[in-house]
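Risk register update: the risk of archive-format incompatibility is retired. Evidence:
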Amino acid sequence: MSIKVLQILTHSKPSFSQVTSRFDEEGWHFRVAKELIKRTNKFNVECWRPEVTFKKIYIRKSKDGILVRIFPSFSLNLYLKSIEFSLPLVISLYKEIQREKKIIVHVHGLYNPITYLIGFFIGKKAPIVVQSHGGYPARVIFNKNPHLLRKFFYLLKHAIQFISFRNISYFFVLSKEEKNYLSMLFGQERVKIMPMGIDTKKFRPLSKNEAKEKLSLDLNKMYLLYVGRLLKSKGLKYLLLGLKYALKKLPNLKLILIGEGPYEDELKIISRALGIEENVLFKGYIPNEELPIYYNAADIFVFPSLGESWGIAPLEALSCKTPVVSTSVGCIPQVAKRVRGITIIPKQNSLAIKEAIIKVLDQLDYIRNEIRLEMLKKYSWDSIIEETIKIYMKILQDNF
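Archived output:
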């Protein structure tokens, strides 16, 4: 009998996305599902998630043969924050557990109301793995927040998290801080640092000139690249200003921005105001399958984020032997200790971005040759899925 594994995402698709065809095949839950079925046939994998714009349950099979279920949800604005719930998802999960003899629930998103509901109502009926994709425990925020009313809010949230998390079988987290906190409350045997992966077979070095030709880029130009959501928190206005400064010395420089987001229109206004609109290419959404060509065509990947939970794009760039200029956010500090090719810059500093770009371009061949791809194996899907399967088998042994 195959073991059912439900990969459950706990939030809707971003409202700013314009590509409706991606409703059923995007999100970390789907990436993990795809990587699982590539490597083993032990599991019958499904992908579930909520969607605030849906009125009824949507079910179909993906091109990979994965059953996808999307459930209606609703959103509440509470204390300056939008909170999403999906009772149809939780009720369907409860019924699914009643039907299945062996099932593992793998939830993506730790500090989330849907996760709390699953912990409350499902936790004692089936083993649950919850994977953190960023954020902080309410108790940590409580300790750092001086505002009395907000302290009360986060204290209440901490109580909810504590009661719900007691029923979680295993936690996958991103940082040592998160691991230490949850280990203190629930035992270190239930907590493991588990990053999200990169496909090192897909994201691999290619000929730079051939990549540029495929994208119809000028072989005589130098290209900077950013991949990610176009949000204010990504620090992209500092990148645009840094580009303006760098153009004074490197007039053949261009910047490619890949991604969608509510900040796109403002970024276009800023680029026009700086007089660099001809040097900035807004590409919008690019399918994951096409990204390796862009990473290889780029001379430098720039990641000026102001705050990040993990940040997978810089690792994908490194896997293509493209040097990275980045602020010290997410996984960057720990990756920089293992892999050469990363230049760390301070946040909100356009002059530092300019100086780093000029310095890296001046030593480009040397830096590219210094990038050791074998050091990225820790972050490859092969390594991560192998560890995930080990945890699944241990949970099955302990529960069935």
